[in-house]
């Protein structure tokens, strides 16, 4: 499909050496985040939270085609790997809702510089190699 390219950069032999000496997270934790966002439902949850700042499970449920238990399973998975956080209000709002989810900084970064970046580049690739545009 693609061709193998020889890289000329200073990439370390061991992928663990990509991290700074005092890294906050391990390589495994970063890979778990990447794997979590690689699931369509979790990607969509993170995408919607990033573009709305924070949402309740009820609000997410109204815009996504997943059942309640599936939604909560994926919310917990995203929380477990540190991509979203849960905020619980001490009092319910006017709609009776008090649990909100929002992306963490790492969640926003992995979304913006991960899958969304690849999708943006797809547009650039298409335009660069579109023979009908000439």
From TrEMBL:
Q: Which InterPro entries match?
A: ArsR-like_HTH (IPR011991), HTH_ArsR_DNA-bd_dom (IPR001845), HTH_MetalResp_TranReg (IPR051081), WH-like_DNA-bd_sf (IPR036388), WH_DNA-bd_sf (IPR036390)
Gene Ontology MF annotations:
DNA binding; DNA-binding transcription factor activity
The answer on whether this UniProt entry bears the keyword DNA-binding reads yes
Traced from the root, the source organism's taxonomic lineage reads:
Archaea, Methanobacteriati, Methanobacteriota, Stenosarchaea group, Halobacteria
The cross-references to PROSITE patterns, in alphabetical order and at most eight, read:
HTH_ARSR_2
Residue ranges of domain HTH arsR-type in the record: 22-117
**What SUPFAM superfamilies does the record tag this protein with?**
Winged helix' DNA-binding domain
Q: What is this protein called?
A: Regulatory protein ArsR
Q: Which UniProt keywords apply?
A: DNA-binding, Transcription, Transcription regulation
């Amino acid at each position: 499909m693609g061709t193998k390219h020889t890289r000329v950069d200073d990439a370390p032999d061991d992928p663990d050496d990509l991290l700074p000496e005092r890294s906050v997270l391990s390589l495994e934790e970063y890979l778990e985040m990447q794997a979590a966002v690689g699931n369509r439902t979790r990607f969509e949850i993170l995408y919607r939270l990033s573009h709305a700042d924070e949402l309740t499970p009820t609000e997410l449920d109204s815009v996504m085609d997943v059942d309640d238990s599936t939604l909560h399973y994926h919310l917990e998975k995203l929380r477990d790997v540190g991509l979203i956080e849960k905020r619980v209000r001490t009092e319910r709002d006017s709609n009776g809702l008090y649990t909100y989810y929002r992306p963490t900084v790492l969640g926003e970064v992995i979304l913006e510089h991960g899958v969304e970046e690849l999708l943006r580049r797809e547009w650039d690739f298409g335009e660069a190699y579109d023979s009908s545009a000439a």
